[in-house]
Amino acid sequence: MPKDFRFGMSMRFFKSRERLVDKLKQAEDVGFDVLCVPDHLGAAAPFPTLTAAAMATTRLRLSMYVLNAAFYKPALLSRDLEALDRLSDGRLEIGLGTGYVREEFEAAELPYPSAGARVDYLQHMTTYLKEHHPNSPILIAGNGDRVLTIAARDANIIGLTGTRVREADDPLTERIEFVRSAAGDRFDSLELNLAITAVPGVGETVPDLTMTRRYAEGMSDEEILAMHSALTGSPREMADTLLGYREKYGVTFFTVQDNHIDNFAKVIAELR
Fold it and tell me: Is residue 259 helix, strand or coil?
């Protein structure tokens, strides 16, 4: 039997408490399952935002897409996660990544480790949090071999980006098969997540590609629209696309940006 769909809403910014609460209640009402807050300087701070969400909602699970592991010490991060889990009555999910924006490390007056050192630290952080938060699912997002190996062996949810890491006719199939090999017997228990970065507006069929283009430099519009992270068409057509992703790839957890909530709510309605 195929796994049930889950839908996440990623929120980078909010202008006021009132607007935040309104959007959270809308997300809960239209069927989103998870609120995800990213971890970037210049954007909303994850833990205050998620704490406010815990107070304003009853069903939404609370996650990060994703915490920059290198910004934190394990015991201090664990303390904040424990408080958020209690305040949300056990709705915590933990999202982790290596961190990759050098300018943010510099702005935070932190050393910028090598790529290998950041992956090593992600493993250290994951091991600590698994021990201290055994009941909270861990999502690890990334695209490289070492990060996906850690995710396959230690995480509950695999965050796939849909971007190309090497030449392959279908890069998403290639990455999922890599995870399958690394995970071994635990693969069937894993949840596969895909970050959707482009969704058409209400009444439109072609999305704004601004965000997706950040991760696809040098690609034409046609090439970007062919990526798994970009959806096109009517809500029914987008729902059919996600059904196809579930059937072909086993991906059942999709995360979209909060500015897509109105049209993506129609996609959720088609799938439930």
Answer: helix
End-to-end CA distance of the chain: 16
Query: Rounded distance, CA 46 to CA 9, Å?
Result: 14
d(CA 140, CA 122): 9
Q: Where do the structural domains in the chain lie, given as residue ranges? A: 6-271
Written as six digits, the tokens of 36 are: 């995800």
Contact 15, 44 (CB under 8 A): no
Tokens 């630290």 — which residue? 121
Q: How far apart are CA 90 and CA 198, in angstroms?
A: 31
Report the run of H or E that residue 93 belongs to, with start and end.
none
Helix, strand or coil, per DSSP, at residue 243: helix
Q: Which two tokens stand for residue 241?
A: 């696309």
For residue range 40-89, list pLDDT tens digits in order.
999 999 999 999 999 999 999 999 999 999 999 999 999 999 999 999 99
| 197 φ/ψ angles, rounded to the nearest 5 degrees | -105, -5
Which tens digits make up the pLDDT trace of 25-54?
999 999 999 999 999 999 999 999 999 999
Query: Residue 156: what residue type?
Result: N
pLDDT digits (tens, 9 = 90+) for 158-192: 999 877 667 788 999 999 999 999 999 999 999 99
pTM: 0.96
Among 43, 31, 39, 82, CA closest to 64: 39
Domain 6-271: CATH superfamily is Luciferase-like domain (3.20.20.30)
Burial class (CB within 10 angstroms; exposed 0-12, middle 13-18, buried 19+) of 244 = exposed
Instruction: Please enumerate in sequence order all residues whose Cβ is within 8 A of that of 197, keeping only pairs 6 or more positions apart, or say none.
Output: 211, 212, 215, 229, 230, 257
